[in-house]
Design goal:
Helix 4 runs antiparallel to helix 5 and helix 10 packs antiparallel against helix 12. The radius of gyration is 34 Å and the shape is elongated. It has three domains: 90 residues, 2-Layer Sandwich (Double Stranded RNA Binding Domain), CATH 3.30.160; 92 residues, no CATH class; 195 residues, Intergrase catalytic core (hpI Integrase, Chain A, Orthogonal Bundle). The protein is of the alpha+beta class. The relative contact order is 0.07. A four-stranded antiparallel β-sheet has the order 1-2-3-4, with helices on one face. It has a three-stranded antiparallel β-sheet with strand order 5-6-7.
Length: 417
């Protein structure tokens, strides 16, 4: 029959039947009405590429009569040209669904989950990443990579655009570019592991190398920093509270890493033995470390106890009672250095270099490098004897070195040369 707009509007459904009306004007165009009253179009044609019958459906009234006839003509025309429109659409939908599953954002989420159990890359001896590392990588992902590439299918990323973007980040800060590139490369390697891609588009991207830092605090800088942290009125101007000030002073006196010190628990402190036992899971080298405490360091702990009371952590946040965050510590130290107008940028990690430089200098404390390395909790650098045969803990030697450093710091801050 010849379909008309008025007929389409007024045709009524019949109970127990699905009505079909074939259009005389366009062969293959069918108007359907279900028992419930739902109306739709169906276009039937033969795919030239396979010889199979195909059907496309459209909803009424979203698609009216004129538009339905136009679509029917296009489908039949494409078929006569040797195209399979329905097949093309099916493949396009499948590709769209695959692209959604292969979005970098989803690959990154899976990568972070795998990192917690050591399944993020090839190898049978891959270790799980620490919570601190995963937290830092997550920060880099959220701030620098997700906004740029998160919604992109992994297969669409190119070496050139990655290189251009890393160059943009590097222009703002060298470490920013390096950190983003390192993480993106690892996530894309994980995509290779999953079979999503065969080659890593982040390989062979030029990244600016960061030179080895030689920064350490001079005696005047050390004294200025200590005095600022001891001056409540001055440090409140740069928003450094009691807990943060004591932690930074503790870092001056003990050469362990920020994450190792910030997570210190009272249960790890033995005042009688004057030691602090850091568990393996918080140490970079994943080995228990016994750090001797100088009288100056013990004095800091005594003041911390008066402030935090019975909290679990030595340097607990006054808001959450959790350890002070690593980023907050770095920012606080940076604010202090800027407030003191240091001529060179300084970080909490430079305090380790400051202590070690003084310890090993023959003109100052003259401590052996091996003892300094033990205080730092550094790896054995491939020394077979140290790793396998030397069972000494050198605690007395470390305690002597720590006490001598604590005394030197007190002399410096008292300006008693």
């Amino acid at each position: 029959m010849k379909l008309t707009p008025d007929f389409l509007k007024t045709v009524e459904p019949q109970k127990g039947k699905r009505l079909e009306f074939r259009d005389d004007e366009e062969k293959g165009l069918i108007f359907r009405v279900t028992e419930s009253g739902h109306k739709s179009w169906s276009v039937r044609y033969v795919a030239a590429t396979t010889g199979e019958q195909r059907r496309e459906t459209y909803q009424y009234p979203e698609i009216g009569l004129a538009r339905a006839r136009e679509l029917c003509r296009k489908l039949k025309g494409a078929s006569s040209e040797g195209r399979d429109v329905a097949g093309e659409r099916k493949r396009a939908r499948a590709e769209s669904e695959r692209a959604k599953k292969d979005r970098l954002e989803l690959i990154a989420e899976a990568y972070f989950v795998a990192s917690k159990i050591g399944a993020q890359r090839f190898g049978s001896q891959v270790k799980p990443k620490s919570e601190t590392t995963i937290a830092e990588e997550t920060r880099v992902w959220n701030s620098d990579l997700k906004p740029k590439f998160g919604q992109r299918p992994v297969t669409s990323l190119t070496n050139r655009e990655i290189g251009d973007y890393i160059s943009e980040l590097t222009a703002t800060a060298t470490s920013k570019g390096r950190n983003a590139h390192r993480l993106l490369r690892q996530i894309l390697n994980y995509a290779i592991l999953r079979g999503v891609i065969e080659h890593n588009p982040a390989d062979r991207v030029a990244v600016v190398a960061i030179g080895e830092r030689k920064r350490y605090l001079s005696d005047p800088e050390l004294k200025a920093m200590w005095d600022l942290l001891s001056n409540i009125e001055e440090r409140e101007k740069i928003q450094i509270g009691d807990e943060m000030a004591l932690l930074l002073q503790f870092l001056i006196l003990t050469p362990l890493r920020v994450k190792e010190a910030s997570g210190a628990r009272w249960s790890e402190i033995d005042k009688g033995k004057k030691t602090w036992t850091v568990p393996a899971d918080r140490m970079k080298g994943k080995r228990i470390h016994i750090a001797p405490l100088s009288p100056a360091a013990l004095a800091i702990l005594e003041r911390a106890r008066q402030i935090v009371g019975d909290e679990t952590y030595v340097f607990a946040s006054p808001i959450t009672a959790a350890p002070l965050a690593r980023q907050s510590i770095a920012h606080a130290f940076s604010r202090a250095a800027k407030h003191l107008k240091f001529t060179e940028r300084a970080t909490p990690h430079d305090l380790r270099r400051t202590q070690t430089t003084a310890l090993t200098s023959k003109d100052r404390l003259g401590v052996g490098r091996d003892i300094a390395r033990l205080l730092l909790a550094h790896a054995d650098n491939g020394d077979t004897i140290s790793r396998h045969y030397d069972c000494n803990d050198y605690l007395s030697e470390k305690a002597d070195a720590a006490a001598r450093w604590g005394s030197l710091v007190m002399k410096i801050v008292a300006n008693d040369k």
